[in-house]
Specification:
2 domains, 8-stranded parallel beta sheet, single chain, alpha/beta, binds iron/sulfur cluster
Length: 339
């Protein structure tokens, strides 16, 4: 597979996770529980982490949430980013509560003296600050606003920065990242903000993030869905995998047509389902007939090429056996699980 040449961004450390430069692209998501509900928030963080989320963001809308952040942080298996808007004191509270990074929105914290207080607190704890510009909070040009903010931080000699420039328009997001990367090399958090509900939001994110990632841009990635954050993590994993930027199993399956003589739709879904938590870096082909079937199945690590009510099982390019349709799934997984 052709490889993507990553943008040479600087490195930043978010708790135990390094991002930027040569470090793997980290999946990020955000809790949608009330931060004051420590138990529910920690559960959501753990659920996301179990699926491969490397960094979680938690909203800190008030002082009670800043206090809860400290308790959440102690129980979190992954580094936490505190999401701050409007009130600089919340940023300082979250930093004191152990935040591994804070996200500031230049659209709603602009006072130089307040920013200087945040910078002093972040500097003391050696944590990065994400300048998270969002088209929903400003009427200014995203890249111009991010640059203005960068210049302020640089004048304070604080360069432990991460940038994000998100819009709900995939094309505006692409244009903003293109402009800022012509000027700065800070690590990039990427996402299409407010992308939508589970299905359309994942597709829109795949279109926008796919374009950014294929240009080598993006050091952390979030798929913003109006859904359970676990679904964001799953979608992010699929996007990275589709571009060869993450390990894990890949299912290649035929789109079915008038030649298909076994139930490939159910079979492919069942294969995908059973591979959901598989850590192996394998390709499994589920093909309907002899046109493309043997070729794809033989190229994959494991594969099925269907016939009439039966199918041929392949492994590592070798044709192993012909199996009745109802036993194909079990026979395939016997091979995958015992290899
Ligand atoms: S692999 Fe065969 S069954 Fe599947 S779409 Fe192609 S021609 Fe049709």
């Amino acid at each position: 597979m052709a490889a993507i040449k990553r943008f040479p961004s600087r490195t930043a450390r978010i708790g135990s996770v390094k991002i930027g430069g040569r470090w793997p692209i980290a999946i990020q998501s955000m809790t949608n529980t009330f931060t004051t509900d420590v138990r529910a928030t920690v559960k959501q963080i753990k659920d996301c982490a179990a699926l491969g989320c490397a960094i979680m963001r938690v909203a800190v809308p008030d002082q009670k949430s800043a206090a809860a952040f400290a308790a959440i942080k102690k129980l979190s298996p992954v580094p936490l980013v505190a999401d701050i808007h409007f009130d600089h004191r919340l940023a300082i509270g979250a930093i004191e509560a152990g935040a591994d990074k804070i996200r500031l929105n230049p659209g709603n914290i602009q006072s130089g003296s307040k920013l200087k207080e945040i910078i002093a607190a972040a500097r003391k704890k050696h944590i990065p600050i994400r300048i998270g510009v969002n088209a929903g909070s400003t009427s200014k040009n995203l890249a111009a606003l991010a640059l203005e903010y960068c210049e302020f931080f640089e004048r304070q000699k604080f360069t432990n920065l991460v940038l994000s420039l998100k819009s709900s328009s995939a094309l505006d997001t692409l244009a903003a990242y293109a402009k800022i990367t012509a000027q700065r090399r800070y690590p990039l958090h990427i996402g299409i903000t407010e992308a939508g509900t589970e299905y359309y939001g994942a597709l829109k994110s795949a279109a926008g993030l796919g374009a950014l990632l294929s240009r080598g841009l993006g050091d952390t990635i979030r798929v913003s869905l109006t859904a359970d954050p676990v679904k964001e993590v799953r979608a992010a994993r699929h996007i990275l995998k589709a571009l060869g930027l993450a390990a894990g199993p890949e299912v290649v399956s035929c789109p079915t047509c008038g030649r298909t003589q076994i139930d490939i739709i159910s079979l492919a879904s069942a294969v995908e389902q059973r591979l959901q938590n598989c850590p192996k870096n394998i390709t499994v082909a589920v093909m309907g007939c002899v046109v493309n079937g043997p070729g794809e199945a033989a190229r994959a690590d494991y594969g099925i090429a269907g016939g009439k009510g039966r199918g041929v099982i392949f492994a590592k390019g070798r044709r192993l056996k012909t199996v009745p349709e109802e036993h194909l799934l079990e026979e395939l997984f016997k091979l995958i699980e015992h290899s």
